[in-house]
Fold this protein.
Amino acid sequence: MDIAQIQKRIAQMEQYSKEIKDAKEMLKEELESDDAYREAAEEAAEVNAKKKRLKDEIMARGANQKLASEIKQNTEETSLLKEILSAELVEVHKENETDEIADANGELRKFKITAKLLPKGFTFDKRDSFGKYTDMERE
């Protein structure tokens, strides 16, 4: 593994990210300076406000509140289960050097391990029991 190549790739990614950010800002300024676009954006904001108000009224109905609550609860539970499963699959990969595991029906399921470069300026010292970083602080 060539560390210099990794460092070069990181620098290239950061340069492209900066260029993308600058280009997006220039496009945003161009859009905001166009009178017709600004007028259409204002009209769209009014329509969206009406849509949101109507949606909130519908969602406030009893049965719909219950459904929304169920969705939120199940989404949170699924997210937690995904975090736990991810940590468990990393352990399986370490222990067995494999990227497959049998599911409850006995079918082999492949999984992949991914790595991400974390942002500059953060310290990541604390992980929970699932290996997830919990205490992210700026230096």
The beta strands are 100-102, 108-110, 122-124, 136-138.
